[in-house]
Amino acid sequence: MTTQPDRIIIFDTTLRDGEQSPGASLNGEEKLTIARQLARLGVDVIEAGFPYASPGDFEAVQKIAELVGVEGGPTICGLARATRADIEAAGKALKPAAKARIHTFIATSDIHLEYKLKKTRPEVVAIAEEMVAYAKSFVDDVEFSPEDAGRSDPEFLYEVLTKAIAAGATTINIPDTVGYTTPGEFGAIIRGIKENVPNIDDAIISVHGHNDLGLAVANFLEAVKNGARQLECTINGIGERAGNAALEELVMALHVRRQYFNPFLGRPVDSQESLTNIDTRQIYKTSRLVSNLTGMFVQPNKAIVGANAFAHESGIHQDGVLKHKQTYEIMDAQSIGLTDNQIVLGKLSGRHAFASRLKELGFDLSDTELNNAFLKFKTVADKKKEVTDWDLESIVNAEIQQPPEIFRLELVQVSCGDRARPTATVTLRTPTGEELTDAAIGTGPVDAVYKAINRVVNVPNQLIEFSVQSVTAGIDALGEVTIRLRHGDRIFSGHSANTDIIVASAHAYVNALNRLYAFLEKQQEATPEPATATL
Ligand code: KIV
Ligand code: ZN
């Protein structure tokens, strides 16, 4: 019998399912940076990737297993389809982790069996059993998922789960793969499993769900009430299609409403003990890091981490909050780390003060990264009197996110105004070291800059998203620009921060083009064989 946890286990899949968001692809360094922050946030399990999918994914999982999966750190998990090759790759990649988990899955809904797998139910049961046992030969901790459980026949689900647990699965994960179920239905599925899978006490029940109908978080909370003890989620809810259940929403719902949830975990109503292991004060920082590195913008009205989540616009609300905070606030901005925004550095601050503040903020930079970030800080501090923690994070995130520098922006100059035709001149250093200058006219200054850059880089692409966000309030605030562009069926993102939003826009575009260029170069080098695996 597996000891059932007396709290909720948080399984983060930002680096696996989250990374499957169109255009969110991260390089190995970026994945490691996020994994380190997830460990600081206090997640129990990090699903670091899908090792069989590509050599890059394999290496990233291995690095995270080695550097983040240390003694006392989170469990590191790797995804594997129910095949020997996938499981073997996951087992190898996870080897360095102190606590390793293989997560293997096979679909159980009739529609997947008939059209995708072309297998019968008995065949699927046999594969699940055999592959769980195979995964067990690499690690003790094996998670099994019946994909599309939300649309599977419950009786068949009970049979597969019983066999998977008997073969050694320690966690059984119930995915609502297509985001189809409603909270009542999803809760009933979990209740049904608890009541009809005879060996269910030998495993922990987990849930995984997509947000196609905007119900993922609600479904999970209903699952908790019916016996689920592990929640699979992503930062900012990123993920395939409409995304996954958002970690910050689940954690804060369980935190703010713990009196409501306590009895479902067998606790006294008034217990103040936290229902998860998450350090909620790390939530905002983690959200910004993931948004910056993936290029996935957080909508302003997003619960918990959106720019407006704690803003009170109406006079009546402002008046109420000033009189008594709780009139219109159910949680404190500080509880997600939002108001630890001290002004710490300025123009006269030296390298030492800069480095030690970054250390306090949890950044662990190489000497080169630190030097580059310091130079950028000095430029910002020259233009901006007060440099806040958020500014520092923005500077460092932009530094960490640097894609391979193929083209380098040396100069950008614009002329615009209501009586002028927006015109831009840019100088770029090309991969051969040559400096090329070109100019263009556009519908606005950013359009002119992008047209001028295109004349130099000359790689066809379509700009599909452009957003500017200010890091802090004030006319001298740093502006963060995030862009996404499409080339064929691939999306590439770019990000940059500067007190001049035209300069930030130019850098963000060159960053995205460098990613695109690196991808094209890699494709040229690659053998004719296609990518090894996709989900
Ligand atoms: O959505 C899904 O079903 C998945 C599985 C691999 C768990 O991501
Ligand atoms: Zn999923």
UniProtKB/TrEMBL annotation:
Any GO CC annotation of this UniProt entry: cytoplasm
Gene3D superfamilies: 1.10.238.260, 3.30.160.270, Aldolase class I
GO MF annotation terms: 2-isopropylmalate synthase activity; acetyl-CoA C-acetyltransferase activity; homocitrate synthase activity; manganese ion binding
EC number: 2.3.3.13
Highest taxon, organism lineage: Bacteria
CDD domains named in the record: DRE_TIM_IPMS
Top-level enzyme category: transferase
InterPro entries (UniProt xref): 2-IPM_HCS-like, 2-isopropylmalate_synth_dimer, AIPM/Hcit_synth_CS, Aldolase_TIM, LeuA/HCS_post-cat, LeuA_allosteric_dom_sf, LeuA_bact_synth, PYR_CT
Catalysed reactions, semicolon-separated: 3-methyl-2-oxobutanoate + acetyl-CoA + H2O = (2S)-2-isopropylmalate + CoA + H(+); acetyl-CoA + 2-oxoglutarate + H2O = (2R)-homocitrate + CoA + H(+)
Keyword entries, A-Z: Acyltransferase, Amino-acid biosynthesis, Branched-chain amino acid biosynthesis, Cytoplasm, Leucine biosynthesis, Manganese, Metal-binding, Transferase
Protein name: 2-isopropylmalate synthase
Gene this protein is translated from: leuA
